[in-house]
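PROTEIN DESIGN WORKSHEET
SECTION A - STRUCTURE
LENGTH: 283
C-ALPHA CELLS:
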C-alpha cells in the first residue's frame, strides 16, 4: 500500500497488456489478479462495476483518452454517476477534485481541446483519483508530454499518492522518470518478469543481463567516458511474441548464453531483500 512499482522494458514486451489485465480491461490467459486480497481474475465487466473505484488507469495519450464531445464536468461526473454519489455532493466533489490537480473551477464547462497536453493529463488524473482508488495503473503517463511539463505531472502524482495512500503500477520505458518515482522496479522481457527489486538495489547492482543492457542503453551524463566504454549494449531485435525462443526468452540476445539456456526456462528465484531474478547464471 502506498508503494510505486515500476514496470520497465522495451516496446512490445507486454507492459501495457499487464496493466490492462490488472484493471480488468484484458482477460489474462494465465495467472491471477488479486487486489487487496480479492481474486478478480474471472470478473466480468458487470462484476467490476461496483469495485471499479478500486483500480483505475491513467492513459498514455491525453489527446485520445478524453471524449472530445463531453465537457470536463461531464467527463469527471461519469464515475460519480456510476458509483451513485448523491447529486448534491457532486459539485462540491468536482470543485475539490479540480483544485487537487491544479485546475481552475471554470474548467468544468470547457471541452478537452481547449486545454494543453499537460492540462489534459491533469484532467485524466482527476478522473482516475475521483473515487479514491486503492490502485492506479499509470501507463506511460508522461511520455506524450513536453519534457518541461513531465516533472510537473510526476510531482502531482507523488503528491496525490502521499495524500490519498494509493499504490501505483507505473509503466514506463523512460528510466530517468522511473528512477525518480519508483520504490520497486520489475523488468519485463517478452511477457515475463526477468528481474524485480527495490529501485536502489536494481540501480546499484542489476543481476540479469537484460537489466544491465537496458540500464546501459540509457544516457547517464554522470558516467565518464572510460566507464561508458565498458557498457553492454543490447544488440538485435526483440523476438516476436508468437515465436518465443525455447528455454530463456532472452537467450538470442544474451552475451552470456550457454547450452543450458536453450533448454531450461529460468525460474524467477529470490535473491534476498525482496529481490528476484530469472537467469541461470545470475548470482
Ligand atoms: Fe542469458 Fe542464460 Fe541468463 Fe538467459 S539464463 S539471461 S540466456 S545467461
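SECTION B - SEQUENCE
RESIDUE ASSIGNMENT:
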Amino acid at each position: 500500500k502506498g508503494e510505486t512499482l515500476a514496470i520497465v522494458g522495451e516496446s512490445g514486451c507486454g507492459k501495457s497488456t499487464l496493466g490492462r489485465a490488472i484493471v480488468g480491461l484484458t482477460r489474462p490467459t494465465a495467472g491471477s489478479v488479486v487486489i487487496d486480497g480479492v481474486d478478480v481474475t474471472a470478473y466480468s465487466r458487470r462484476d467490476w462495476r461496483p469495485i471499479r473505484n478500486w483500480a483505475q488507469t491513467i492513459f498514455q495519450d491525453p489527446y485520445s483518452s478524453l471524449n472530445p464531445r463531453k465537457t470536463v464536468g461531464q467527463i469527471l461526473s461519469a464515475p460519480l454517476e456510476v458509483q451513485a454519489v448523491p447529486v448534491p455532493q457532486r459539485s462540491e466533489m468536482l470543485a475539490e477534485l479540480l483544485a487537487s490537480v491544479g485546475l481552475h473551477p471554470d474548467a468544468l464547462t470547457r471541452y478537452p481541446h481547449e486545454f494543453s497536453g499537460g492540462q489534459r493529463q491533469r484532467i485524466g488524473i482527476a478522473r482516475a483519483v475521483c473515487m479514491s482508488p486503492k490502485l492506479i495503473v499509470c501507463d506511460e503517463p508522461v511520455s506524450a508530454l513536453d519534457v518541461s511539463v513531465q516533472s510537473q505531472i510526476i510531482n502531482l502524482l507523488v503528491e496525490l499518492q502521499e495524500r490519498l495512500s494509493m499504490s501505483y503500477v507505473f509503466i514506463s520505458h523512460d528510466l530517468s522518470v522511473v528512477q525518480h518515482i519508483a520504490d520497486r522496479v520489475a523488468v519485463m522481457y517478452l511477457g515475463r518478469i526477468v528481474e524485480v527489486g527495490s529501485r536502489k538495489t536494481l540501480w546499484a547492482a542489476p543481476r540479469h543481463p537484460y537489466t544491465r543492457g537496458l540500464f546501459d542503453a540509457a544516457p547517464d551524463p554522470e558516467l565518464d567516458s572510460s566507464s561508458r566504454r565498458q557498457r553492454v549494449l543490447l544488440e538485435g531485435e526483440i523476438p516476436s511474441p508468437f515465436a518465443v525462443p525455447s528455454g530463456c526468452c532472452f537467450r538470442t540476445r544474451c552475451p552470456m548464453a550457454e547450452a543450458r539456456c536453450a533448454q531450461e526456462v529460468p525460474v524467477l528465484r529470490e535473491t534476498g531483500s525482496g529481490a528476484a531474478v530469472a537467469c541461470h547464471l545470475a548470482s
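SECTION C - NOTES
DSSP finds eleven helices and ten strands in the chain.
Residues 61 and 263 are 41 Å apart (CA to CA).
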